[in-house]
């Protein structure tokens, strides 16, 4: 009999069924001889001392068979219970549980919950967590789509939970407190069952509306606990459905400690009248922590009366004077807001281009109502619709018409929404020129938003959210403007004369603007060295004669980059520039960022899309000088009958490597053969390198490596794959440390962990091959370069600082191979001393 059939068989609808159902659920307790006492307690409230006995039975088979859901019990386990309770089976117990949760009165459910808590909650916390245990169990028991599951879900409302809390005297100031604290609480030490979904219904919304004061108290208190932020975001999303009723709570949470909670609170407030929002948010201007004020200031600059509130806060004389950071934030917000109130700031923009796509029109018609339900993170699946909107103001207008007071900003926020669920790029990060054309009229009407994006707004919504370059996004959009709005010219000139890579895009936006030409000439003759270098670069690009170009790498400052790194191509240095901007944005002091940039080293890396330089070939044939031994391991015997050949992985043409592409003292020509037997059982591999000088004749050599390789049947199969790839394409790159720092590194670079995290996020996808530079981090296994200094038995100790990465290859499934050597041996062409390592996590 299926579970669904069993549910229907027991579903008679009579309340008396629950007594039999309780017995069925608790039948496994007969194995521990506490069944009768447990039944007496649950059904009649007698013998509460059984709870203490059950606490000791948590990990017994009978105990686990009562509370552990989804486990496939053995036939012997099932037979043991069935022998004591004829007809018992896990399916019958699951069906009986639904009857209990559907029919049992609150007092019985309270005692059932206390019993479940006693037998499943460790650390003596069952007396405080029994209500959470019970509601979690309800959610787990009703995952099927049967009619019985639906009826249980329908019955279990917040009001029922409150009745159960009252009957069982659940901890809390009142039953309503206990209910909300339970449904909105997350305990990281437990396997919770989405009990907050009990609030995600119309009855849940009505419950919250009736108990607004308690709801506010509980939710604000949760912000001072270890409560998961996601639960409070969920609660605020429900508030948005009845923003008038929960206005006070939404306003309080608008300056919460969590960025995502603040966003949801402001998203709910956006549906209120503008005057009401000003009234609610005004007090925060002088009292909230400055680092939590950004969203409040943005909202106030979006609505009528908001700018006046900000100006009042700046000029008010009562109480303590504003601290400097707060005053700076308010002044900056007021300056930005004033841009939209200056007629000269506005460009002539065309009327909104109305979409004609019938599917899109239908979507836009439903989008405002959906936005109210979805909160700040509105419009899932936006990526498929944006390319079909000729002018994003069509969406903005639909949201405005529905009453959203931050429709401009909410529409603009789609630029910082990820294309896919968690790991995709932000929409704005991959804008094409055609895409940018959909956005420019919106920003032309809101130059204050342009300035916010140019300044690099904080767009992370979660601790692990992907950052995005809003400055770059806005410069791309500004290139579509028919003219530069006059108030934006000074800001663009400042970027154009700066050191950030954005200077090039800012210069394109300014074009032939006469103010830009004059500013560059002034800076060229000024006292500030960096501005002079930037101005020289700018004027040279504009075709001005007689100007000396700045030194390579000037934008990083004197002495920041090593000479080998600062001469890298501009396109390569751009990665370091982006890294610097992100590190400064994360709060790393400039001097610490510069010292870390001093560790940057040039590399050759696998080129994206098969471009770059052909520097060699993967796999065979093995070409060696006549008479040269086949690279092998001899197990202590110099005898051809006792050796294991090494597998050829790549042949590098050193003459194809441009001068300065790495900072390694490589030979200028000849062939470098890299060998490795990537055996998962070893971290120090059989292998090495062989150098064949230019002009030395070679012949094809047979080789028969014999070892076990992961996910390949034989070494010959790996060689066939390598030969199929063929040419090895590499392109100039740059490398920074990404391996977890040791204590010595942390002493010299206290922000090393943050800096390597930022770089690692950039370096993902650099490809399979790298020559020179820093070794790539692999699952925090360590640094193969410094590890190479550990001497083998009988060998002298070497200085870890002498070792360098010759090459690395991430072509073995779930592993990476490194070839390392000392600089001294490399300069002396002692390639016989190359060490080979592999880190793997199959």
Automatic annotation (TrEMBL):
<dbReference type="InterPro" id="IPR035948">
    <property type="entry name" value="YwqG-like_sf"/>
</dbReference>
<protein>
    <submittedName>
        <fullName>DUF1963 domain-containing protein</fullName>
    </submittedName>
</protein>
<dbReference type="InterPro" id="IPR015315">
    <property type="entry name" value="DUF1963"/>
</dbReference>
<feature type="region of interest" description="Disordered">
    <location>
        <begin position="772"/>
        <end position="794"/>
    </location>
</feature>
<dbReference type="Pfam" id="PF09234">
    <property type="entry name" value="DUF1963"/>
</dbReference>
